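Chains adopt folds. We examine one example:
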Amino acid sequence: MTVLNQKPIPLAIVKEYVGESEEKRPIDEYLKKFASLPKDKAEKLVEEVTALNNPKIKDADIAKIVDLLPQDAADLNKIFIELSLSDDEANQLLNIVKKY
């Protein structure tokens, strides 16, 4: 098998690729437990965060935002360990996440 492309995606979207079968049952149980949004809402949240066009926010960060749904600046700081967001940037993200 050759990997042609890698892109971080939220757990809610991973569900669509995994499918359901007996051999994938542990993965399915994990996804049910930790994917906090349905796929359509996860995709919408990804779109809204991407629309900010903030170069600090990478695809991996967006996937973490969707998976963890940070509630405050402290939660965001756990995602953005290597850099810091301004108060305005953090508030923009938190306002988007609060809708979900």
